[in-house]
Amino acid sequence: GNFNYIRVDGGTTAEDILSQLVIECDMPETICTGAVMELVFNGEVCDTVYIIVNGDVNADGIVNGVDVLKAQKIIDGREVKPMNFMAADVSCDGSITSKDVALIARSIIAK
User: Fold this and answer.
1) Is residue 50 within a helix (H) or strand (E), and if so which, with residue range?
2) What pTM was estimated for this model as a whole?
3) Which candidate, 49, 6, 43, places its Cα nearest to that of 27?
4) Are 98 and 106 in contact (CB under 8 A)?
5) What DSSP character marks residue 23?
6) What is the mean pLDDT of residues 53-73?
7) What is the helix (H) or strand (E) element at residue 20, kind and residue range?
8) H or E element, residue 47
């Protein structure tokens, strides 16, 4: 896996490090698939995290019928970006199947 390192001087405490860490977010109010968070230390980006919202296939931050249709289109062979694919793969098994479509639909009904 990828590892990121923060170099500090001897005697540095966890409190010292935490006081210099910043999380910067490039996100709207509602978290959506594709949103980005960066961990910044001393002004340098140490790590970047891309957010995947289960079922938010179209990356608008709302899981609804549009996402169900988009997940079905992936099954039918439509090409999508990896993040959208991961959002549709709510069963986390590496493929999009009717099970994922049903899980997305159920999550809408459960709201």
Assistant:
1) strand 44-50
2) 0.76
3) 49
4) no
5) E
6) 95
7) helix 14-20
8) strand 44-50
Please give the structure tokens belonging to residue 41. 């230390």
Q: How far is CA 73 from the centre of its chain?
A: 21
The token pair at 67 is: 């996402």
Give the 3-state secondary structure of residue 39: strand
pLDDT for residue 1 is more than 90 = no
Strand partners, 52: none
pLDDT at 4 over 70: no
Supply 18's token pair: 């935490």
Q: DSSP letter string over 60-111? A: SS--SHHHHHHHHHHHTT----HHHHHHH-TT-SSS--HHHHHHHHHHHHT-
User: What is the three-class DSSP state of 14?
Assistant: helix
Q: What is the dihedral of CA 71, 75, 76, 82, to 10 degrees?
A: 70
